[in-house]
């Protein structure tokens, strides 16, 4: 086990649990139809919702296998940033407690993915060149 395994495992579980249930409980269809289509992605809302959720599953598998981690992380970070901009930022910071559906969880996931991508830190990575 390398130094990022515990974080990769945790993020993989989160991504799977955020995507797979929606594949079986009509969640992807609802997200695509009742949210993405209504905010300007019609008629591609359902397709986009499926692509987002499938990217989470692929990223989870890649994180568990420790393969293409940077690509999987970058794609996931971009999706999380868009989630913040479109869904969570208008709701504020807190997921629960001081608010509802806020951006704090996405913020944390972004920085965990950055820590996975750069386990030695960014400064050390840049100074080796």
TrEMBL record:
InterPro entries: DoxX, DoxX-like_oxidoreductase. It is a multi-pass membrane protein. GO terms for cellular component: plasma membrane. The chain crosses the membrane at residues 5-24, 44-64, 71-89, 105-122. Pfam families: DoxX (PF07681). It is found in: Cell membrane. Keywords: Cell membrane, Membrane, Transmembrane, Transmembrane helix. The keyword RNA-binding does not apply. Its main location: membrane. PANTHER family: INNER MEMBRANE PROTEIN YPHA-RELATED, OXIDOREDUCTASE CATD-RELATED. Belongs to the DoxX family. This is DoxX family membrane protein.
């Amino acid at each position: 086990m390398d130094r990022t395994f515990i974080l990769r495992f945790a993020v993989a579980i989160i991504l799977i649990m955020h995507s797979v249930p929606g594949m079986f409980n009509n969640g992807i269809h609802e997200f695509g139809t009742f949210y993405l289509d209504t905010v300007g992605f019609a008629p591609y809302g359902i397709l986009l919702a499926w692509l987002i959720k499938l990217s989470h599953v692929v990223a989870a598998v890649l994180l568990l296998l420790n393969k293409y981690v940077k690509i999987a992380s970058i794609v996931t970070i971009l999706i999380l940033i868009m989630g913040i901009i479109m869904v969570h930022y208008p709701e504020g910071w807190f997921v629960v407690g001081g608010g509802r559906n806020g951006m704090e969880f996405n913020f944390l996931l972004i920085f965990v993915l950055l820590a996975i991508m750069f386990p030695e830190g960014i400064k050390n990575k840049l100074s080796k060149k």
